[in-house]
Amino acid sequence: MATSIKIDDDLKDRIQHLAALRQRTAHWLMREAITEYVQREEARESFKQEAQESWAAYQETGLHLDGEQVSAWLKTWAADEKAEAPECHD
User: Fold this and answer.
1) pTM here?
2) pLDDT computed for residue 71 by the predictor
3) Phi, psi of 62, deg, nearest 5
4) pLDDT digits over 50-89, tens only?
5) Hey, how many other C-beta atoms are within 10 angstroms of the C-beta on 10?
6) Which residue(s) pair with 64 in the sheet?
7) In this predicted structure, what is the pLDDT of residue 81?
8) Torsion sign across C-alpha atoms 17, 22, 24, 27
9) pLDDT-based confidence at 2, cuts 50/70/90?
10) CA 64 from centroid of its chain's CA atoms
11) Domains of the chain, residue spans
12) In three state form, how does the secondary structure of 14-39 look?
């Protein structure tokens, strides 16, 4: 599917300059930039969705961990054997 975008002359010149420095085409550079942007935004949306689901689960059940529990558990990650994740509680 072909798509076109309009960009101002200044941005076009900057893209062409950067593409020349990278020994790539302007087309390649723009595709790469768009791909990275879309991947980053998809990851952000996934994170937001997971946070909303976690909040809804907490509101429904009241189950949680406090910061001290999480911190103590994360400190075990530097050890040879990671501790099991603590159990959620009311």
Assistant:
1) 0.74
2) 94
3) 80, 0
4) 999 999 999 999 999 999 999 999 999 988 888 899 999 9
5) 8
6) 89
7) 82
8) negative
9) confident
10) 24
11) 9-61
12) HHHHHHHHHCCCHHHHHHHHHHHHHH
Instruction: Tell me the two tokens of residue 20.
Output: 């020349």
- 8 A C-beta contact, residue 70 and residue 87: no
Report residue 13 as tokens: 């010149």
Structure-block tokens of residue 90: 């009311």
CA separation for the pair 70, 78 (Å, rounded): 14
Count of other CB atoms within 10 angstroms of residue 55: 10
Two structure tokens written together for 4: 């076109």
CA-CA-CA-CA torsion sign (14, 20, 21, 25): positive
56 in helix, strand or coil? helix
Question: d(Cα 14, Cα 20) in Å, to the nearest integer?
Answer: 10
Buried b or exposed e, range 34-44, using 16+ CB within 10 angstroms: eeeeeeeeeee
> What is the rounded CA–CA span in Å between residue 89 and residue 68?
13
d(CA 83, CA 45): 30
Q: What is the pLDDT of residue 80?
A: 80
